[in-house]
Write a structure and sequence with these properties.
Blueprint: H1 12-24, E1 29-38, E2 41-51, E3 59-64, H2 71-87, H3 92-97, E4 102-106, H4 111-116, H5 163-175, E5 181-189, E6 195-199, H6 211-224, E7 231-235, H7 246-257, E8 262-270, H8 272-278, H9 295-304, H10 306-317, H11 319-322, H12 327-341
Parallel strand pairs: 3-4, 3-5, 5-8, 6-7
Antiparallel strand pairs: 1-2, 2-4, 6-8
InterPro entries: Peptidase_M14
Cofactor: Zn(2+)
Domain Peptidase M14: 7-346
Length: 346
Amino acid sequence: MNPLLPSRNTLPELQLLENLLDRAGSAVRAECVLRVPLHGRELPVWRLEMGSTAPDAPVAGFFGGIHGMERIGSQVLLAWLESLVSRLDWDVSLQDLLQKVRLVCLPMINVGGLALNTRANPAGVDLMRNAPVEAHGYTAWPLGGQRLSRHLPWYRGEHRLEPEAEALIRVVRESMLHRPFAMAMDCHSGFGLRDRIWFPWARSREVPPHLAEAVALRHIFNSTYPNHDFYLMEPQSLNYTTHGDLWDYLYQEHLDSGDPGFFLPFTLEMGSWLWVKKNPRQLFDWFGHFNPVLPHRLKRVLRRHLTLFDFMLRATASWEQWLPQQEEARRAYRLAGLERWYPRGG
């Protein structure tokens, strides 16, 4: 039996998270940033931090559970955090690494949606369509976000940020912006037969300002882990554009601020169609459209992305060694990105 399958009266991810906090003790700095009322309970949204508290330390942020139905995003983050906490007892290299870098994590942002097993939050709002960002050009309706009805998918809400979105924005502003270097990884599922790593924009098919840096990160990952070629890294807008993307909102805010520091958010889209292809019976279960159901496949997915998360943490700590800072290097990486993703100009 799969112990992480949801049931009416339990939220297994929250139990895993609270058990992890008990085990970690002072190694993890934990704060409840929001309480979501639901069915007579108040469900906590936890912010976890590890590592350096220096204001100039680079920051790696990991996020999951923005879409409650995509529970695997929270589950893979919790599996990785469990690994980190266990390694702290004996892994001197990890202890040294965390002296140099700050780790910020919101593993269960839409805790109400997780409890209800819905994509949207308890108010019916899709949090990734909720930010005050309007897409440029054509956007497929309703996929790109709609305000017609909360009873239809991809509902944006009524021109205000939902509490969960406000909590995420507040944590990113406090912990990640205005730092020399910060990267975010937001974990989702439910798109295609490949695991994709997306970077801004979601709102526009324009060439993103940090195309060169995204190409540089892709290069060092592929060079370091050539057997992990199951990831397809690309701009999100190559697939579709949307209104209201929270990461576009934060990314644009950082650009507008004129801050000289670096901030770039990524989204991991786990290819859930592959799980359905291997187990077609999942088509008859809405939960199975977005999550691995069979126990052996769940274990495989939980360990599949540990290398990627470790890489993101180490790349953040060592950002000065690979980030292109000379104009000549940036121009070369940008040209490589244009040739790969924008062959008709950009």
